[in-house]
Design a protein that fits this description.
binds magnesium ion, single chain, alpha/beta, eight-stranded mixed sheet, binds adenosine-5'-triphosphate, about 300 residues
Amino acid sequence: MKDQAYKLRQLIESFKENNNKVLDMAGSQVNKGARVITVTSGKGGVGKTNFTINLGIALSNAGHRVTIIDADLGLGNVDVVLGLVPKYTLANVIRNEVSISDIMVKGPKGINIISGGSGIKDMIHLSKDGISNLMKNFYLLNESADYLLIDTGAGLNNSVISFTEAADEVIFVITPEPTSITDSYAVIKNISCENKSIKIVINRVESNEEGYEVFNKINSATKKFLNVKLDNLGFIYEDSLVKKSVKEQKPFILNFPNSIASRGIDLIAYNIINNSNSIKTISSFERFVSNLFNVL
Ligand SMILES: Nc1ncnc2c1ncn2[C@@H]1O[C@H](COP(=O)(O)OP(=O)(O)OP(=O)(O)O)[C@@H](O)[C@H]1O
Ligand SMILES: [Mg+2]
């Protein structure tokens, strides 16, 4: 067991070394690396997938390169929301059948979508070859994106925990329903929050007052009982144009850019870009990959 862990660390180090060489060769063009943000929630159906896609488009509108990994095993995934049909998923990358660039599908505004498919489930039981295939492909992502957004399922299942544990930055999408707040608290309690920035987006609010009330409720509980301080990224209002856009399989930020929900997303994107707690460094992506494979 100890031997296996040692070999895994060696593998990680060798990929890091190769990756740094590529970066060095680029000279002044050195890419600072992708900022990795996992989007998750305690309870399902709170709006994670819609939030992730629309945030991705807002970041792209602001001039950033965005890749979204759909790491949700359930239905209602990124490709369903966008009406895209992916031919390959991460499962094919793990089996070394294709590379990660082959499975990227172009979404609106140039965002790239990667479908996890059954690959997300397979990640829990990867062979050494599978880990190696996945890692070298993940490093390619670092050069092609400024933001890597990971849309997960809800709750405390293994793959959600792996992505949540691995990323430096985690956004919890919460709605004002009491179960959404308590379920999010339970997940925050169960992940290690050391050196991690936990950000909160309150979705489907009726007013700013309601948003602040929900944020204060969860923030005071995590501060008091878990010694974890949360960042408030902003609120998205309940908006019938969101449902309308879901039915039309078009992101609401493109369909209705001046809607109240779109304005919420724009403000959140602005807050993320300017968030001084998470200055973009090359190590955000590196830590993510090392953490991910150590967790696995
Ligand atoms: N701000 C909003 N206003 C109105 N309706 C919304 C809003 N946000 C989300 N919804 C509704 O909630 C539904 C679920 O959203 P979404 O699929 O993004 O949730 P999810 O958290 O990804 O779900 P799952 O946990 O199943 O992956 C949407 O189809 C939409 O009808
Ligand atoms: Mg979803």
